[in-house]
Structures are given as structure tokens and as C-alpha cells.
Amino acid sequence: MDDSAYANLQGFRARHRQAATAGASSMDREVARMAGFAPIITIRTRRPDMDRRDVVRMLSSSTLGLAWSARANPGAALSAMPRNAGLPAYVRATAGRWDPQLYAGLLGAANAFKEGDQSVGLAAASDAQRALARKHLAATTLREIDSHPLLADGLYAKLQASLDRPAQDACAAWTLGELKRFLLRQNEGAIKQVTPGLSSDVIGCVVKLMTNAELTAVAAKIFNPLPGTHIGARGYLSARIQPNSPTDDAEDIRWQVFDAWSYAVGDLLIGTNPVSSEPAQVHAVEVTLRDLQASFGLGEVVPYCVLAHIDVQAQVERDWPGSTALWFQSIAGSDAANATFDVTTERLLAYADTRKGRYGLYFETGQGADVTNGHAQGMDMVLHESRKYGLARLLAQRVAVARGGAPWVHLNDVAGFIGPEVFRTRDQLVRCCLEDLVMGKLHGLCIGLDVCSTLHMDVSLDDLDWCLDAVLPAHPAYLMALPTKIDPMLGYLTTGFQDHVRLRAKFDRRVDDRMAKFFRELGVLDAANQPTRHFGDPLRVYLQYRRRHGDTRPEADIRAEGTRQMAAVRGRGVFLATGHGPRPFDLEPGLASEIRRIYDDGKRSIWAEFDGAFRMAMAGARFIATRSADRTDYVLHPTTGEALSDAAVASVQALRAGHSATIDVQIVISDGLNALAIMDRQQLDPFLRLLRGGLVEAGYRVAPAELIVTSGRVRAGYRIGELLFGGVSGRRTILHVIGERPGTGHHTFSVYMTCLPGEQWARTGKVDHDVTRVVAGIANTALAPELAAAETVRILRILSVEAPAQGGSVHILRITAPQSKRTNPRA
Question: What is the DSSP secondary structure assignment for residue 758, as one 8-state letter?
Fold first, then answer.
């Protein structure tokens, strides 16, 4: 930061510093009275045996025990405190000492309400409590925020060390309220003088103070385009094509790309979530994507990416040099949370140092993943998310050094993928998107959005349109792009091709100029970038693809071939859009009706429960339950479906006493989020029959009866394994068959495979997703049960001979399900 910029910033601070006035205001006293001096205590217990004394004891030792003893005289502390006191002063005056737990609670209370914060005791219980927290947060200096980290792990230390020290020092004495006013009043150039010195915690705190309108105003003035492009620039809206296939089928993937380009969509990235993360299979998908890029001469225009774990992508590049383009990784905001993704900061930095070509790194994040994976660590979702952006900024800095120029690095904020345990409503989804856009832009990132929801949230297909209209004025760099709003593999709601067409027209946005030229060459856009008669005709794109491969057959023959391929793709349950309704951005009426039908079926799948006929058919199995009180409790509070009921614990313990030492494999079946998939005997029965046969043939000793869990989530299987196999000699396996992915148009289940030594199963509560693999998307209309059974046995045989990694954990390349957007298995 130069001297003139420093002087300007200090002048701004002097002009807008609020005068300090001793004594507590009437608002202080009224807010304290309304808050009862416990502004962030939220208690929900399912234990009927807890009496008032138990609750008081819990409060006194909880992470958010807010000055419980101060209730007797709450005005005393306030009366001795300046009205403009920052949070640290407020904490000391309230608690009589420095109380990091109270401080964390107040920072969380300043957030707009979200269920994820509430689940870890970091949400305000009233508007009065939120007002109190925000009032004192606004008076807190940036130096105080940086001097009181909620979590000081290795990642935090690296983030702080990466800051521009002169820029940080220039603003250190500002309050967060002053920083907010600066961001609202200054232009982009002045803001970018400051941002290199703003820590992730400061950025995360300042957005807590802003209204949605203020967040939009700040985001709309900051742009961080990718180098040499207009992606992320003012007036542009780009798209990441997500051509997912339930079976990694090359034609499924290829035709979704043809489909996107026929609607003039797809200028940022062709990014596929693989079903299998085996290196050879990832390479096969990479080859499909590279062929599309090369066939149309787009190597320097749009990259491709297979969203497997970064270790797998690196291995693919080693084994098949030049086969990868952009590298992907999901990232978290702490060392512990990143361990869930089987990555460390050091390993990510090492990868960043190797990215010397045109395309660097691509990240996905999303509020709530840390909380739902058990790594809240006393920090609210907004601050966790901001630290993720800090890590992305750090890695971008390293890529810039490696390639000697501006880095091609961008981040996709997957807002809404996890479910109602994080937040439930469309208003919360918009708030999350706006917070994340501002945080990402203040970190200097090119940031896009996956404005999405799950079928168990209170966000409908129509609500997503409302959300998109609410966030577009904040100028996200890009959005996701699928043939419809439903992902055929992941089964969540997101942005369709026609949404891009509508939003570009309504908000006067356009695609990157280089791809606009390509779309004109395809003939889907005219000279004025308006739709032509070929708009929405993927066969037109296929024709030109074949011509570029030297195919000289008559156009009619090529179109007929393409029509047959499209029918086969649709037959595998993958959506393809063609044409449009009355307006270019309207979905073709027949497809629109089908999407509504699938959406309704997804809702039924989520709320379905095991019926009497299924229970009778599975009479030889042992039924157990989790701690979920009912289906509503299970859907809204996922952790209740991860813990076994007392009766279930006793049942598994009895099973252990009977035969745990004589079996290698226990099959567990849960309803998950799609009981209809499990109750379909035409797909479950052949899978179980062939699975058992394959296991026996391979020499495994399989428990004679399945354990069937009602209201069961993935982690319930881990708890069963701990009870059944903990301390038993040798490697033992839980195969957890669970209903998943409602809303794909298929009734699919998955099988989670966890094969560990008995001593590792004995580490109660420690077995988790990082040591598990999964075969996903099993259904008669997707991955055939017969093939899935064989694949399960094949993978288990590999797992059975893997040695524990250093520290006793088992190193798994990656789960077979998509690594992106699987930060938290939703079942």
C-alpha cells in the first residue's frame, strides 16, 4: 500500500470514527433485559430424564454458558462499560475475565439465523440477542478480531502469515462498523487497496453486520475476473457445465455438453462429478472431456475437470501425462475439517506449486459442511466459510508464483446442498449466497454459485427462480448449468440451461466473448448474440462434432445416429433438453412436466418409511432403530439418525456376543433418505443375493442375517461396526446399504464399505467417511444391482489387504461416490 492510499484510509477513519461516550445507554439496558444476559443459549434436549438442575449444570459447563451468574445484576456490568465497547471488552465486563466460549457465542449470535449455527449452540435465540451481539461487534477493531482467533490451528497461522502486512496495519485500528461503511461508500479501486490486508476472520465478521441490500451493494462493485477473460467481469455471467452420469457413461457426458452448447451455455468449465474415483475410470472421463475440448479447438478457451480427489487427479496426470486440465478439490476452513477430505494444507500447497500451466485450481465449499461433519470447533458457519476462502486465496498466491503470472483459480460456493440441518428456507439460501459472494470477492477470488437445494428443504423449483433473481444483482461470476434443474446423479436442485438464458436476458449479462464467438460459429447465436433457429438443437452441435472428425456422411444420417444416441441417454435416466417453450428461456412443456413429476416423487421418497409388507418380507433380519423420534425429527435433525437407540445398542451387543468373532462381514440396511429404493424388492433382492454369493465365493464369512435400521444415516453403520467389531482380531467389514439421492428420477441406494482392523473399530466415535468407500447410484434404471454387487466384492477384496496408514488410520484413495458435493453424505 502506497503512502497516499494510507493517508486516504486514515482520513476516512478519522471522518467516520464514532465518539466514545461513557456509561450504558438505555438501549444497552433494554437489550440486556430482553436477552436475559444469555444472548446465545439455545437448548434442545431429547432426554426426558433431565431435570432443571441437570440443565443448569449443563449450562455452567457448556461452550456457551453466557455469564449465567450475572443474571442477578446484569446492569452492573453494562453501567461500567463504554457504550461503544467492542466484543472483547463486553466479554470481560460480562464474565469478569476473558471467556473464549462467550466470545465465540457472541460472534455466532451476530449471524443471521441458520439452523447449522443453532445445532452447535452458536445462534441468537431472539432479535434482541442478535442486536446486542452486532452492536458490540460493530465497535470491535480489526486488530481485536485478529488478536482473538476462535481457532488457532496450523491453517490459521498460514492464513495470517499470507496477509499484506502494511495493508493490515493501515486498517488495524478501524472498527468493523467503520470497515462496513468504507466498503459501502468507496469504489472498487479503494477497496482493493485494503483487501490484501483483511484477514478471513475480519471479512467473516464484517458481513455479519450487513443487510442483504448492503451485501448486494458491496458485491456489485467488486470483480475478480479470470486472467485473459471476461469470466467474473462486470456485465458477464458464465456457466460451469455439470454433465454428470449415474454410470460415468461417455455418451451421457458428451451429449449433455452438446446440449449445453446448443443453448449457448458453458464458457467457464466442463466439470464432471465421477461415480468412480478409480484412476483408470477418472482418466476415461478425462479423455471424453478432452476430446470435446480438442475437437472444437477450445484448448485455450475453456478447461475441463473431473472432480475426483486431488490425489487421484495427480495420479492420473502422472500415469497419463497431459490428460488433465484444471485440478479440483473440496476444501474446509480448519486442519481438522480438511482431514475429512483427506487433505492437509501442506499437501495442497505442494500441489499449487506444480500448477504452472494455463489452468490452475478449482475449489468447492459451502456453509455448514464443517458443522455437519463434526468440526464446528466453537466457530460459526460464516467464519468457517471465510477461512475456506482464505485458504483458496493462499493457494491462488502460490499458483501465481508457480506460473509467474495471474492464476487461473476460482471457487464454487455450493450453497444449499447439505439440507435443512444447515438452513431450510429460500430467504436463508439467498442470505448465504450474498454473504459468501462478498466474502469471496473481498478475498480477491473469482467466485461463482451453485444456488441449490435438497428435496428435504423448504425450497421448491419455483423458489429457486426467486433466489436466482435475488442474487444476480450481486454479480456472481458464474452459476451451474444442467439440462434441467435436477441433477440426474446427485439428485439435488440447481440451475438449468434455460435459467442462464432467462437471467442473461433479464439482467443484461452475456457469456465470455471468446465462447460467444464459438456459439456464433455453431450457429446457435446470431451476430447480435440472439438465439437462432438452431438454438436448443444439440443435434446441430453433434453434426459439427462429427464433421470435425472427418465424417462425410449425409447430414440426415448423422442426425439419425444422434437421435438414437439421445434416446439411449434418456433411457439411462439422464435429462436432455431440446427446443423451448413460448420463450427461449422456457423449458419445453413435456420436459417441464416430467421434471415436476420427478420432483414430486423425490418428496415422496424422502418421507417414505418401511411398510408392513417390507417388514414381513425381511422377517429373518434384525430390525433396530436410531434415536430419531419420528421421520420429521430424522429429516430435520440428522444427528439423531446417526446415533443408535439404547435398545439398538443392546441388540447389537447381543449379536456380538453370539458371533462377532466368527464373521468377517455384517450387512446393514437403512432407509436413509429413500426408503422406496430399499423397499423395491426387484432391485434389493438380486443385489443382496449376488452380494452374498460373491462374498462367500471370495472366502468371506458373512453374518447370516441383515441388520435393518429405521431412520438410519450413514454414520449409524459406523456405530454398529464399533459395537460389533471393536477389539476383535483381524479386519472386519460393515457393508451399509442405504437409500439415497431422491429426486434423480431413479430410486437408488448405495453401499458404504468400511473394512478396518478390530483395534481401529475400537476407537469409539472415530470411524468416519474418510476410511470408507461407496458404490453409489444402484437401481434397475441406473447402476444395475448385478454389476454393483460384483463391484462391491471387488473393492472389498482390495480393502481387505490394505495396511493401516501411519497413525493407525486406513488410507483410502477416495470414496467411489463423487468427491465434490459429497462433503457430507446426506443419508
Answer: H
